Amino acid sequence: MPKQIISTESAPAAIGPYSQAVSVDAGGKTVYLSGQIGLVPGTGELVSAEFEPQVRQAFANLTAVTEAAGGSLANVVKFTLFLTDLSEFAVVNGILAELVPQPFPARSTVGVSSLPKGAKFEVEAILVI
Known about the structure:
By secondary structure, this protein is an alpha+beta fold. The chain has a single domain, classed as CATH 3.30.1330.40. Helices cover 22% and strands 29% of the residues. The chain has helices spanning 51-68, 89-99; strands at residues 3-6, 21-24, 30-36, 76-83, 106-111, 121-128. β4 (76-83), α2 and β5 (106-111) form a beta-alpha-beta unit. The longest helix has 18 residues, at 51-68. It is globular, with a radius of gyration of 15 Å.
């Protein structure tokens, strides 16, 4: 699935591992992934009370669903991130840069007051396979 990265100097440049916009040929299968938090699959409990382990587990969960759909994180065209503390944003950027290959997908980040089970982070995605 070739991604065409859309970039313009008429809007602010990306300030992390994401693109301003991504265009894909609609001939592929589009998959909308529900949000994932840092729950351990076997227990249904949060992996940790700490932020970074929750982010890593949420991405592990998202990766598992992505693979079950027949894709990988390379097929993601849009992430939406939900953080209960936006001061932790740099941690997520670092993990995204580590896990997601370039060209980076589009992304939105939202600060929220709370998430299910007291989670500190949630991620959802759209992929095209």
